[in-house]
Each structure stands twice: as structure tokens, then as C-alpha cells.
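Changelog-linked ticket: zinc ion example.
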Amino acid sequence: MVLRDKVSFRYGEEGLEAVYFFDREFIVSGNVNDGPYVHYQASGNLESFWVCEGKVHRKVVKSASPAVIEPLCGYKRKITIRDIVSEFPVSVKFIAHKVAAFSDVHGQYDLMVKLLQANRIIDDNLDWVFADGHVVITGDMFDRGSKVTEVLWLLYHLDAQAQAAGGYLHILLGNHETMVLYHDLRYVNKKYDVVAEKMGKTYTDMFDGNSVLGRWLRSKPVIVQVNDMLFMHGGLHPQYLTLNLRIEAVNEQYRQSLGIAKVLHKEQSVLSFLYGSIGPIWYRGYFNEPLLDEVALDYILAEMAVKRIVVGHTSMQGVFSHYQGRVISIDSSIKEGQSGELMFWDEGRLMRGTLSGERLPIFEMAENL
Ligand code: ZN
């Protein structure tokens, strides 16, 4: 489904060019640069697509280990495609000396790069320099912004580099990953509607199980524990405990149901909880009414045997503490493209990292939103 309202044409430098109207916004297709979208072919070769200056380019790279995709437009770096482990990681508990976390990038590639460079997670060449540290991204890379492809490929690259360095990049799925993967394209940047139309596919199909990024995303969990912290996109509601479902099983349930039509979720009680408004990818009850009371929060923390829960999803102007440090919110409104922060955990000490690379204390938000 393409949400195009109307297309018209105008005289461009190379003849007629299409102008797509979306409500009052319009996008000139000749200005659209995006890619690559890489798919595994049955032969084992890799088929890559770009839309550059509004024109579709296709290249096939012979299977090789590793296969390398040279940049054309869109993401500007060489990409080394690796075999994605088809097996889902069983472990959800990790130990790290130092941890950094952020969330809700929503296609703001340039700001993400600036934040990671300022805080010495990556260097000027966009390579991992956080050594054996763990970085957790609590979801929502997709939607809103216009550099989602660039965000995903850089994270794909850092994912491998982190592990090679003895560190770890935990990429968790948020509600916007699951929305894109099950054809809910309401928040997709208009640019990607043009790209999908040029490719003759839906945006969702560009991330199907045969695509490199789609397969990679499907290998990612929704909840992980690092040290004494539980990370997820929205939050855990006490009802989770009544399901009697271990975190490993929650991750597996999401993985198996990704891409299934939303209406089918309603037929299964576990899925309707997981994809519902109090499920781990949507819940906002640590900040918004009806607020979770402290007794219920303490019960969850005790049952899960963790000290705190770290979540994104609910946007604030920075990284904040809530419930006296038992909840940390890390959606620092990167999606607005103006500012953002990271959370740092260093041998038990919590700090926040700013865009200028300063490390400052995390404040308790006196009144929840
Ligand atoms: Zn969200």
C-alpha cells in the first residue's frame, strides 16, 4: 500500500520529473536517494537495490564469504554482509563492566552519529571504540525520520564490530519495528513511500525474511537484562507476571509473530497482551496515567530479580530517573533531530552522556508527565 495522494510532473534538469504530494507536503522524486536494500537470492547471490536521484539501480553480488556491497547512494559506506545466525540468541542475561543505552532514534542518523562520537562509542570513521562495553538501544529505529536505512546499516556494522571487540550491541525491537514489519505504515517517512513505489513493493516487503536487514531484525529480542537492569522499549506491566512466561519465551513469541497480521494477534491471549497497550513494546504506565504504583513496581523488580528497568518509548528532553532510580527513561527526543542523551552505567554508577560528550548526573523527575 502506497500512501501517495497524487502525482504530477514538472520540468527538471533531465526532463520531466515526478512530484509526489502527500497532504500538503510534496517530494520531488529526483531528490530521493536511498539504499541499499539487499536481498538473498535462491542462488545464494545478493541482489541490491538503490533509488538514486529518483532512479532505481540494481546490482547482483556473487555469493562470497564475506560479500561486500559497495556504496552507490543512501548509506555511504561499504557493507560487509555476513551470514545471519538463523538461531535466535537464547541468552537474555549479560554481564558488562560498562553499559551505554539510548532509544527512539527514528531515522535521525546524523544526530545518532554525533551522540555516539561525542561519547566515544564510535570514532570519526564510525567504527566501534567502546571496547568490551555493552550498548543497548531500546527500539524504534524506524519511522518519522528520513535516514532509517542509514541508521540500520550502521547498527548492522557496529553489531559485528562490537562482538569482535568483546563488547555487545543489543538492539531491541520497539513498537515501530513491529508496526513496519506487519504493514502498519502510518508513520513511515514520505520519502520511503516514493522509494517503495519506485521499487514496486511495499515498504514492509523491503524488510521481508529474504532481505538482509529483515532477517537481521528478526534475530533481535525485545527484552534483555544487562547486570541488574532490565531493558525494553515500553515497560513491564504487572500483568506480565500472570502469564508465567520467561523473558526468553517473550522474545521467542515476538520473533515468531513478527509480520503476522495484527488481527491474528487478537486470537491468542499471549500475543494480544504482547502487542497490546500494556505489553512490553507499548506500555507507558511508569510515566502516564494510570500510573503504576510503587508497590506493584517493587513486586515486578523483585520477581524479575533486577534493581531497575530502563525504557524508551515515552519521550522526554533527556535521560531521567523515576521512582527513585528504579525506572530510567532514555527516550531523550532524538526523534526531533535537535538533541539527545545516552545513559551510562559504569561499575554501578549511573550518569548521562550529552551531545557535547559531558557526563552529568541523572536527575529524578519530580513529577511524572
Ligand atoms: Zn515507541
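Closing comment: Example verified and attached. Residues 140, 174-176, 233, 313 surround zinc ion (CB under 6 Å). The chain is about 25% helix and 25% strand.
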